[in-house]
Predict the structure.
Amino acid sequence: MTEAQVLEQITSIVQRMLEDKGVKAATIEPNTELLGGAISIDSLDLAMLVRELEDVVGHDPFAEGFIEFRTVGELAKLYAK
Amino acid sequence: MIPTGAFGLDAGDPTPLIAHARDTLSRGDLARAANSLVAAMGGAGISRLMVRSDDPFHILRAIDAASRTGADLFIAHTNLPEAHIDAVVKKFGVQMIVSADDKLTGETPSDAATACIFMMTSGTTGAPKIASHSLNALMSRAKAAMHPGNRGAKWLMTYQPTGFAGVQVQLTAVVGRGVVVAPEERTPAGFLEAAKANGVTQISATPTFWRAFLMVVRPGDLNLRQITLGGEAADQSTLDRIRKAFPDARVTHIYASTEAGVVFSVHDGREGFPAEWLNTETQGVTMRVHDGFLHIRTPNAMGGYVSDTAQPRLDDGWLATADRVEIRGDRAFIVGRDDSTINVAGSKVYPLMVEQFLLKQPGVVEAHVFGVANPISGQLVAADVVIEPGLDPAETRSAILAACRENLAQYQVPRAFKVVDAIAVRESGKKG
Protein backbone atom coordinates (compact mmCIF):
# COMPACT_ATOMS: atom_id res chain seq x y z
CA MET A 1 0.00 0.00 0.00
CA THR A 2 1.21 3.50 -0.78
CA GLU A 3 1.42 6.17 1.87
CA ALA A 4 -1.66 7.87 0.41
CA GLN A 5 -3.62 4.62 0.58
CA VAL A 6 -2.58 4.05 4.19
CA LEU A 7 -3.62 7.62 5.02
CA GLU A 8 -7.01 6.88 3.51
CA GLN A 9 -7.30 3.75 5.66
CA ILE A 10 -6.32 5.64 8.81
CA THR A 11 -8.90 8.33 8.06
CA SER A 12 -11.66 5.81 7.49
CA ILE A 13 -10.83 3.78 10.62
CA VAL A 14 -10.65 6.92 12.79
CA GLN A 15 -13.91 8.29 11.38
CA ARG A 16 -15.63 5.00 12.16
CA MET A 17 -14.26 5.11 15.71
CA LEU A 18 -15.57 8.65 16.16
CA GLU A 19 -18.94 7.58 14.75
CA ASP A 20 -19.02 4.61 17.18
CA LYS A 21 -18.35 7.01 20.04
CA GLY A 22 -21.07 9.35 18.88
CA VAL A 23 -18.71 12.29 18.33
CA LYS A 24 -18.62 14.38 15.17
CA ALA A 25 -16.25 13.66 12.31
CA ALA A 26 -12.86 15.36 12.44
CA THR A 27 -10.56 16.84 9.82
CA ILE A 28 -7.60 14.52 9.58
CA GLU A 29 -4.45 15.83 7.90
CA PRO A 30 -1.02 14.21 7.63
CA ASN A 31 0.29 16.63 10.27
CA THR A 32 -2.57 16.00 12.74
CA GLU A 33 -1.16 14.71 16.05
CA LEU A 34 -2.96 11.49 16.92
CA LEU A 35 -3.16 12.17 20.66
CA GLY A 36 -2.76 15.94 20.49
CA GLY A 37 -6.40 16.61 21.29
CA ALA A 38 -7.61 17.65 17.81
CA ILE A 39 -9.33 14.29 17.28
CA SER A 40 -11.27 12.70 20.13
CA ILE A 41 -9.48 9.37 20.34
CA ASP A 42 -7.76 8.01 23.44
CA SER A 43 -4.70 5.78 23.68
CA LEU A 44 -6.88 2.64 23.61
CA ASP A 45 -8.47 3.80 20.34
CA LEU A 46 -4.98 4.38 19.01
CA ALA A 47 -4.04 0.86 20.09
CA MET A 48 -7.02 -0.46 18.14
CA LEU A 49 -6.13 1.66 15.11
CA VAL A 50 -2.64 0.15 15.03
CA ARG A 51 -4.09 -3.32 15.36
CA GLU A 52 -6.58 -2.77 12.51
CA LEU A 53 -3.94 -1.27 10.25
CA GLU A 54 -1.90 -4.42 10.67
CA ASP A 55 -4.89 -6.45 9.43
CA VAL A 56 -5.65 -4.13 6.51
CA VAL A 57 -2.11 -3.43 5.37
CA GLY A 58 -0.78 -6.88 6.09
CA HIS A 59 2.35 -6.13 8.07
CA ASP A 60 3.29 -5.00 11.56
CA PRO A 61 5.96 -2.28 11.68
CA PHE A 62 6.19 -2.73 15.47
CA ALA A 63 7.12 -6.41 15.26
CA GLU A 64 10.74 -5.64 16.17
CA GLY A 65 9.89 -3.11 18.85
CA PHE A 66 8.18 0.21 19.21
CA ILE A 67 8.88 2.98 16.69
CA GLU A 68 8.26 6.62 17.54
CA PHE A 69 5.38 8.40 15.84
CA ARG A 70 3.31 11.41 16.68
CA THR A 71 1.28 12.44 13.62
CA VAL A 72 -1.08 10.67 11.22
CA GLY A 73 1.49 11.11 8.44
CA GLU A 74 4.28 9.53 10.50
CA LEU A 75 2.06 6.55 11.26
CA ALA A 76 1.13 6.18 7.56
CA LYS A 77 4.84 6.15 6.60
CA LEU A 78 5.45 3.21 8.96
CA TYR A 79 2.87 1.08 7.16
CA ALA A 80 3.53 2.23 3.57
CA LYS A 81 5.65 0.03 1.33
CA MET B 1 -10.33 20.11 70.40
CA ILE B 2 -10.45 18.02 67.20
CA PRO B 3 -7.74 15.30 67.02
CA THR B 4 -5.27 15.81 64.16
CA GLY B 5 -5.53 12.26 62.79
CA ALA B 6 -3.05 10.40 60.63
CA PHE B 7 -2.37 13.39 58.35
CA GLY B 8 -1.41 15.75 61.18
CA LEU B 9 -2.52 18.79 59.14
CA ASP B 10 -2.46 22.30 60.58
CA ALA B 11 -5.36 24.61 59.68
CA GLY B 12 -2.93 27.52 59.33
CA ASP B 13 -0.48 25.79 56.97
CA PRO B 14 -0.34 27.63 53.60
CA THR B 15 1.77 24.92 51.87
CA PRO B 16 0.04 23.94 48.60
CA LEU B 17 -1.32 20.37 48.44
CA ILE B 18 -3.79 20.05 45.55
CA ALA B 19 -3.44 21.86 42.20
CA HIS B 20 -6.54 21.99 40.01
CA ALA B 21 -6.70 23.85 36.69
CA ARG B 22 -8.81 26.56 38.40
CA ASP B 23 -7.29 26.81 41.87
CA THR B 24 -4.66 25.50 44.24
CA LEU B 25 -5.62 24.35 47.71
CA SER B 26 -3.27 24.34 50.69
CA ARG B 27 -2.78 21.85 53.50
CA GLY B 28 -4.59 24.38 55.71
CA ASP B 29 -7.55 24.50 53.29
CA LEU B 30 -7.81 20.73 53.52
CA ALA B 31 -7.53 20.77 57.33
CA ARG B 32 -10.33 23.33 57.62
CA ALA B 33 -12.59 21.46 55.17
CA ALA B 34 -11.96 18.25 57.13
CA ASN B 35 -12.76 20.12 60.37
CA SER B 36 -16.17 21.04 58.97
CA LEU B 37 -16.77 17.48 57.83
CA VAL B 38 -15.78 16.12 61.28
CA ALA B 39 -18.21 18.59 62.87
CA ALA B 40 -21.02 17.60 60.48
CA MET B 41 -20.33 13.91 61.15
CA GLY B 42 -20.39 14.46 64.91
CA GLY B 43 -23.66 16.35 64.68
CA ALA B 44 -25.31 13.56 62.72
CA GLY B 45 -23.65 10.67 64.63
CA ILE B 46 -21.86 9.32 61.59
CA SER B 47 -19.40 6.42 61.79
CA ARG B 48 -19.55 5.14 58.21
CA LEU B 49 -19.15 7.30 55.12
CA MET B 50 -18.40 7.01 51.43
CA VAL B 51 -16.53 9.33 49.12
CA ARG B 52 -17.51 9.33 45.47
CA SER B 53 -15.49 11.87 43.54
CA ASP B 54 -12.42 12.05 41.31
CA ASP B 55 -11.29 15.24 43.02
CA PRO B 56 -8.33 14.61 45.40
CA PHE B 57 -9.71 17.39 47.61
CA HIS B 58 -12.86 15.40 48.44
CA ILE B 59 -11.00 12.09 48.70
CA LEU B 60 -8.37 13.48 51.10
CA ARG B 61 -10.97 15.46 53.05
CA ALA B 62 -12.94 12.24 53.61
CA ILE B 63 -9.83 10.21 54.53
CA ASP B 64 -8.70 12.87 57.01
CA ALA B 65 -12.13 13.13 58.62
CA ALA B 66 -12.46 9.33 58.85
CA SER B 67 -9.01 9.06 60.40
CA ARG B 68 -9.82 11.70 63.01
CA THR B 69 -13.13 10.16 64.03
CA GLY B 70 -12.35 6.44 63.69
CA ALA B 71 -15.09 6.15 61.07
CA ASP B 72 -15.14 3.62 58.21
CA LEU B 73 -14.64 5.08 54.76
CA PHE B 74 -15.69 3.55 51.43
CA ILE B 75 -13.85 5.00 48.42
CA ALA B 76 -16.04 4.50 45.35
CA HIS B 77 -15.28 5.02 41.68
CA THR B 78 -17.41 7.68 40.05
CA ASN B 79 -18.17 5.35 37.15
CA LEU B 80 -19.72 2.57 39.26
CA PRO B 81 -23.38 2.11 38.32
CA GLU B 82 -25.86 3.70 40.78
CA ALA B 83 -27.42 0.32 41.54
CA HIS B 84 -24.09 -0.99 42.91
CA ILE B 85 -23.53 2.12 45.00
CA ASP B 86 -27.05 1.84 46.43
CA ALA B 87 -26.48 -1.82 47.26
CA VAL B 88 -23.24 -1.06 49.16
CA VAL B 89 -24.86 1.89 50.99
CA LYS B 90 -27.74 -0.33 52.13
CA LYS B 91 -25.69 -3.43 52.93
CA PHE B 92 -23.16 -1.65 55.14
CA GLY B 93 -25.36 1.18 56.32
CA VAL B 94 -23.28 4.00 54.85
CA GLN B 95 -24.67 7.17 56.41
CA MET B 96 -23.11 9.93 54.35
CA ILE B 97 -21.78 10.36 50.80
CA VAL B 98 -18.99 12.89 50.41
CA SER B 99 -18.57 14.66 47.06
CA ALA B 100 -18.90 18.25 45.84
CA ASP B 101 -22.25 18.14 47.61
CA ASP B 102 -22.18 16.04 50.83
CA LYS B 103 -25.39 14.10 51.43
CA LEU B 104 -26.90 12.04 54.25
CA THR B 105 -28.41 8.73 53.18
CA GLY B 106 -30.70 8.06 56.14
CA GLU B 107 -29.14 4.59 56.64
CA THR B 108 -27.84 3.14 59.92
CA PRO B 109 -24.53 1.22 60.10
CA SER B 110 -25.01 -2.54 59.92
CA ASP B 111 -22.33 -3.05 62.61
CA ALA B 112 -19.68 -1.11 64.57
CA ALA B 113 -17.08 0.89 62.63
CA THR B 114 -13.53 -0.44 62.69
CA ALA B 115 -11.65 2.58 61.26
CA CYS B 116 -11.07 0.84 57.92
CA ILE B 117 -10.63 2.17 54.40
CA PHE B 118 -12.63 0.14 51.90
CA MET B 119 -11.66 0.32 48.25
CA MET B 120 -13.88 -0.97 45.49
CA THR B 121 -12.99 -2.59 42.20
CA SER B 122 -15.05 -1.61 39.17
CA GLY B 123 -17.51 -4.42 38.81
CA THR B 124 -19.43 -4.44 35.56
CA THR B 125 -22.03 -6.97 36.51
CA GLY B 126 -22.52 -8.28 39.99
CA ALA B 127 -21.38 -6.43 43.07
CA PRO B 128 -17.98 -4.70 43.06
CA LYS B 129 -15.28 -6.41 45.06
CA ILE B 130 -14.47 -4.53 48.25
CA ALA B 131 -11.01 -4.69 49.83
CA SER B 132 -10.39 -3.48 53.38
CA HIS B 133 -7.24 -1.63 54.39
CA SER B 134 -6.11 0.08 57.53
CA LEU B 135 -5.15 3.72 57.02
CA ASN B 136 -2.08 3.14 59.18
CA ALA B 137 -0.86 0.40 56.83
CA LEU B 138 -1.51 2.62 53.79
CA MET B 139 0.32 5.51 55.44
CA SER B 140 3.29 3.35 56.41
CA ARG B 141 3.57 2.19 52.79
CA ALA B 142 3.64 5.84 51.69
CA LYS B 143 6.24 6.65 54.37
CA ALA B 144 8.38 3.65 53.43
CA ALA B 145 8.42 4.81 49.80
CA MET B 146 9.53 8.31 50.87
CA HIS B 147 13.09 9.30 50.08
CA PRO B 148 14.71 12.75 50.00
CA GLY B 149 13.98 13.14 46.26
CA ASN B 150 10.24 12.77 46.90
CA ARG B 151 9.94 15.54 49.51
CA GLY B 152 8.06 18.58 48.28
CA ALA B 153 7.53 16.83 44.96
CA LYS B 154 4.74 17.63 42.50
CA TRP B 155 2.85 14.50 41.44
CA LEU B 156 0.73 14.21 38.32
CA MET B 157 -2.50 12.33 39.12
CA THR B 158 -2.39 9.83 36.26
CA TYR B 159 -4.18 6.96 37.99
CA GLN B 160 -7.89 6.83 38.67
CA PRO B 161 -7.96 8.88 41.90
CA THR B 162 -10.30 6.42 43.67
CA GLY B 163 -8.20 3.35 42.86
CA PHE B 164 -5.48 1.84 45.01
CA ALA B 165 -2.56 3.40 43.10
CA GLY B 166 -4.32 6.77 42.90
CA VAL B 167 -4.99 6.87 46.65
CA GLN B 168 -1.38 5.86 47.28
CA VAL B 169 -0.08 8.82 45.21
CA GLN B 170 -2.32 11.23 47.16
CA LEU B 171 -1.14 9.84 50.52
CA THR B 172 2.46 10.13 49.35
CA ALA B 173 1.93 13.82 48.59
CA VAL B 174 0.43 14.34 52.06
CA VAL B 175 3.27 12.48 53.80
CA GLY B 176 6.04 14.16 51.78
CA ARG B 177 4.56 17.70 51.88
CA GLY B 178 4.14 17.48 48.12
CA VAL B 179 1.46 18.57 45.67
CA VAL B 180 -1.07 16.44 43.76
CA VAL B 181 -1.71 17.88 40.30
CA ALA B 182 -5.21 16.98 39.05
CA PRO B 183 -5.64 17.50 35.29
CA GLU B 184 -8.86 18.97 33.96
CA GLU B 185 -8.98 16.49 31.11
CA ARG B 186 -7.69 12.94 31.48
CA THR B 187 -6.20 12.72 27.95
CA PRO B 188 -2.49 12.74 27.00
CA ALA B 189 -2.80 16.40 25.94
CA GLY B 190 -4.71 17.28 29.14
CA PHE B 191 -2.13 15.53 31.34
CA LEU B 192 0.69 17.36 29.59
CA GLU B 193 -0.98 20.74 29.97
CA ALA B 194 -1.52 20.23 33.72
CA ALA B 195 2.03 18.92 34.18
CA LYS B 196 3.55 21.91 32.39
CA ALA B 197 1.36 24.49 34.13
CA ASN B 198 2.31 23.16 37.57
CA GLY B 199 5.94 22.15 37.05
CA VAL B 200 5.28 18.48 37.84
CA THR B 201 8.41 16.67 39.07
CA GLN B 202 7.19 13.07 39.48
CA ILE B 203 4.97 10.96 37.30
CA SER B 204 3.91 7.50 38.34
CA ALA B 205 1.91 5.75 35.62
CA THR B 206 1.41 2.58 33.63
CA PRO B 207 3.70 1.75 30.67
CA THR B 208 0.66 2.32 28.43
CA PHE B 209 0.25 5.83 29.81
CA TRP B 210 3.93 6.48 29.08
CA ARG B 211 3.72 5.23 25.49
CA ALA B 212 0.84 7.65 24.82
CA PHE B 213 2.41 10.49 26.83
CA LEU B 214 5.68 10.23 24.89
CA MET B 215 3.67 10.98 21.74
CA VAL B 216 2.68 14.45 22.99
CA VAL B 217 5.54 15.59 25.26
CA ARG B 218 8.42 17.53 23.70
CA PRO B 219 11.99 17.91 24.91
CA GLY B 220 12.19 20.62 27.56
CA ASP B 221 8.44 20.54 28.37
CA LEU B 222 9.02 18.99 31.79
CA ASN B 223 11.82 18.72 34.28
CA LEU B 224 11.04 15.35 35.84
CA ARG B 225 13.00 14.02 38.81
CA GLN B 226 11.25 10.68 39.24
CA ILE B 227 9.47 8.49 36.72
CA THR B 228 7.71 5.37 37.93
CA LEU B 229 6.11 2.62 35.87
CA GLY B 230 3.66 0.18 37.43
CA GLY B 231 0.51 -1.84 36.82
CA GLU B 232 1.93 -3.76 33.86
CA ALA B 233 5.33 -5.27 33.24
CA ALA B 234 7.65 -2.55 31.90
CA ASP B 235 9.26 -3.56 28.61
CA GLN B 236 12.76 -2.61 27.53
CA SER B 237 11.74 -0.43 24.58
CA THR B 238 9.43 1.74 26.69
CA LEU B 239 12.11 2.03 29.40
CA ASP B 240 14.66 3.08 26.74
CA ARG B 241 12.33 5.66 25.18
CA ILE B 242 11.62 7.19 28.59
CA ARG B 243 15.33 7.33 29.39
CA LYS B 244 15.98 9.08 26.07
CA ALA B 245 13.16 11.60 26.56
CA PHE B 246 14.04 12.34 30.21
CA PRO B 247 17.77 11.69 30.60
CA ASP B 248 17.96 13.43 34.02
CA ALA B 249 15.08 11.60 35.73
CA ARG B 250 15.41 8.55 37.95
CA VAL B 251 13.41 5.78 36.24
CA THR B 252 11.88 3.08 38.43
CA HIS B 253 9.59 0.23 37.56
CA ILE B 254 7.64 -1.48 40.29
CA TYR B 255 5.63 -4.64 40.80
CA ALA B 256 2.75 -4.06 43.16
CA SER B 257 -0.67 -5.44 43.85
CA THR B 258 -3.61 -4.32 45.91
CA GLU B 259 -3.17 -7.40 48.04
CA ALA B 260 0.58 -7.22 48.67
CA GLY B 261 1.49 -3.55 48.16
CA VAL B 262 4.79 -2.73 46.46
CA VAL B 263 6.72 -5.97 46.12
CA PHE B 264 9.82 -4.74 44.31
CA SER B 265 11.24 -1.58 42.72
CA VAL B 266 13.87 -1.71 39.99
CA HIS B 267 16.06 1.33 39.26
CA ASP B 268 18.64 0.05 36.77
CA GLY B 269 16.61 0.75 33.65
CA ARG B 270 16.51 -2.91 32.58
CA GLU B 271 13.26 -4.85 32.24
CA GLY B 272 12.60 -7.61 34.76
CA PHE B 273 14.39 -7.80 38.11
CA PRO B 274 17.62 -9.39 39.41
CA ALA B 275 17.07 -13.14 39.87
CA GLU B 276 19.12 -12.98 43.08
CA TRP B 277 16.17 -11.18 44.72
CA LEU B 278 14.27 -14.47 44.68
CA ASN B 279 14.24 -16.50 47.87
CA THR B 280 15.92 -13.81 49.96
CA GLU B 281 14.15 -11.25 52.07
CA THR B 282 14.45 -7.70 50.70
CA GLN B 283 12.83 -4.87 52.69
CA GLY B 284 10.66 -7.39 54.52
CA VAL B 285 9.30 -8.95 51.32
CA THR B 286 10.29 -12.38 50.02
CA MET B 287 9.52 -13.72 46.53
CA ARG B 288 9.73 -17.24 45.21
CA VAL B 289 8.84 -18.97 41.97
CA HIS B 290 6.54 -21.92 42.43
CA ASP B 291 5.60 -24.01 39.38
CA GLY B 292 6.44 -20.99 37.24
CA PHE B 293 4.29 -18.55 39.24
CA LEU B 294 5.38 -15.70 41.46
CA HIS B 295 4.63 -16.15 45.15
CA ILE B 296 5.03 -13.34 47.67
CA ARG B 297 5.40 -13.21 51.43
CA THR B 298 4.98 -9.78 52.95
CA PRO B 299 4.07 -8.28 56.31
CA ASN B 300 2.17 -5.50 54.45
CA ALA B 301 -0.58 -7.71 53.08
CA MET B 302 -3.95 -6.00 53.09
CA GLY B 303 -6.66 -6.78 55.63
CA GLY B 304 -8.74 -8.90 53.29
CA TYR B 305 -11.79 -8.78 51.11
CA VAL B 306 -15.14 -7.98 52.54
CA SER B 307 -16.75 -9.72 49.60
CA ASP B 308 -14.73 -12.58 48.11
CA THR B 309 -11.03 -13.31 47.72
CA ALA B 310 -9.02 -12.71 44.58
CA GLN B 311 -5.50 -13.71 45.48
CA PRO B 312 -5.39 -16.89 47.53
CA ARG B 313 -3.18 -16.88 50.59
CA LEU B 314 -1.59 -20.29 50.97
CA ASP B 315 -1.44 -22.14 54.27
CA ASP B 316 2.23 -21.27 54.73
CA GLY B 317 1.55 -17.53 54.53
CA TRP B 318 2.55 -16.94 50.89
CA LEU B 319 0.35 -15.03 48.43
CA ALA B 320 0.05 -16.95 45.15
CA THR B 321 -0.13 -14.62 42.14
CA ALA B 322 -1.30 -15.58 38.64
CA ASP B 323 1.81 -13.93 37.18
CA ARG B 324 4.20 -16.22 35.36
CA VAL B 325 7.93 -15.73 35.90
CA GLU B 326 10.74 -16.74 33.55
CA ILE B 327 14.41 -16.68 34.54
CA ARG B 328 16.99 -15.91 31.86
CA GLY B 329 20.58 -15.63 33.10
CA ASP B 330 20.79 -13.31 36.09
CA ARG B 331 17.40 -11.74 35.40
CA ALA B 332 13.80 -12.71 36.20
CA PHE B 333 10.93 -11.55 33.99
CA ILE B 334 7.18 -11.35 34.55
CA VAL B 335 5.91 -12.88 31.31
CA GLY B 336 2.15 -12.72 31.64
CA ARG B 337 -0.81 -13.96 33.56
CA ASP B 338 -2.16 -17.44 33.53
CA ASP B 339 -5.80 -16.65 33.85
CA SER B 340 -8.40 -15.30 31.48
CA THR B 341 -8.12 -11.71 32.70
CA ILE B 342 -7.29 -9.15 30.03
CA ASN B 343 -4.71 -6.56 31.09
CA VAL B 344 -5.68 -3.30 29.40
CA ALA B 345 -3.11 -0.65 30.18
CA GLY B 346 -2.63 -2.02 33.69
CA SER B 347 -6.32 -2.47 34.48
CA LYS B 348 -7.70 -5.96 34.80
CA VAL B 349 -10.79 -6.83 32.79
CA TYR B 350 -12.71 -10.03 33.48
CA PRO B 351 -14.08 -11.24 30.11
CA LEU B 352 -16.96 -13.06 31.74
CA MET B 353 -18.27 -9.86 33.34
CA VAL B 354 -18.23 -8.02 30.02
CA GLU B 355 -19.91 -11.00 28.32
CA GLN B 356 -22.64 -10.98 30.95
CA PHE B 357 -23.14 -7.27 30.41
CA LEU B 358 -23.40 -7.72 26.63
CA LEU B 359 -25.86 -10.59 27.01
CA LYS B 360 -28.17 -8.30 28.96
CA GLN B 361 -28.40 -5.84 26.06
CA PRO B 362 -31.56 -6.01 23.92
CA GLY B 363 -31.09 -8.15 20.80
CA VAL B 364 -27.88 -9.90 21.92
CA VAL B 365 -28.10 -13.70 21.89
CA GLU B 366 -24.46 -14.68 22.32
CA ALA B 367 -21.27 -12.85 23.15
CA HIS B 368 -17.60 -13.75 23.28
CA VAL B 369 -15.13 -11.37 24.90
CA PHE B 370 -11.38 -11.82 24.59
CA GLY B 371 -8.12 -9.90 24.65
CA VAL B 372 -6.20 -8.82 21.56
CA ALA B 373 -2.53 -7.87 21.74
CA ASN B 374 -1.13 -4.60 20.41
CA PRO B 375 2.09 -2.62 20.88
CA ILE B 376 0.43 0.34 22.63
CA SER B 377 -1.73 -0.90 25.48
CA GLY B 378 -0.54 -4.50 25.80
CA GLN B 379 -4.03 -5.88 25.37
CA LEU B 380 -7.44 -4.58 24.38
CA VAL B 381 -10.94 -5.88 24.90
CA ALA B 382 -12.51 -7.40 21.80
CA ALA B 383 -16.06 -8.71 21.50
CA ASP B 384 -17.92 -10.81 18.98
CA VAL B 385 -21.69 -10.80 19.36
CA VAL B 386 -24.51 -12.66 17.69
CA ILE B 387 -27.76 -10.71 17.43
CA GLU B 388 -31.36 -11.78 16.94
CA PRO B 389 -32.26 -12.42 13.30
CA GLY B 390 -34.09 -9.56 11.59
CA LEU B 391 -32.40 -6.76 13.57
CA ASP B 392 -30.40 -4.11 11.73
CA PRO B 393 -26.75 -4.95 12.48
CA ALA B 394 -25.48 -1.35 12.25
CA GLU B 395 -28.19 0.09 14.49
CA THR B 396 -27.91 -2.71 17.04
CA ARG B 397 -24.14 -2.33 17.08
CA SER B 398 -24.37 1.41 17.82
CA ALA B 399 -26.94 0.85 20.58
CA ILE B 400 -24.78 -1.81 22.27
CA LEU B 401 -21.65 0.33 22.03
CA ALA B 402 -23.49 3.31 23.51
CA ALA B 403 -24.67 1.14 26.43
CA CYS B 404 -21.08 -0.06 26.96
CA ARG B 405 -19.73 3.48 27.05
CA GLU B 406 -22.38 4.51 29.52
CA ASN B 407 -22.03 1.61 31.94
CA LEU B 408 -18.48 0.31 31.67
CA ALA B 409 -15.16 1.88 32.55
CA GLN B 410 -13.38 3.10 29.41
CA TYR B 411 -10.80 0.29 29.62
CA GLN B 412 -13.62 -2.29 29.78
CA VAL B 413 -15.42 -1.10 26.64
CA PRO B 414 -14.78 -3.49 23.73
CA ARG B 415 -12.68 -1.53 21.24
CA ALA B 416 -12.92 -4.24 18.60
CA PHE B 417 -16.58 -5.02 18.23
CA LYS B 418 -18.01 -7.32 15.60
CA VAL B 419 -21.47 -8.58 14.88
CA VAL B 420 -20.97 -12.17 13.72
CA ASP B 421 -23.23 -15.01 12.51
CA ALA B 422 -22.02 -17.55 15.04
CA ILE B 423 -19.44 -18.01 17.77
CA ALA B 424 -17.34 -21.14 17.59
CA VAL B 425 -17.53 -23.42 20.59
CA ARG B 426 -14.53 -25.63 21.28
CA GLU B 427 -14.79 -29.28 22.22
CA SER B 428 -14.32 -28.33 25.84
CA GLY B 429 -17.57 -26.43 25.51
CA LYS B 430 -15.71 -23.16 25.91
CA LYS B 431 -16.20 -20.28 23.53
CA GLY B 432 -13.52 -19.23 21.12
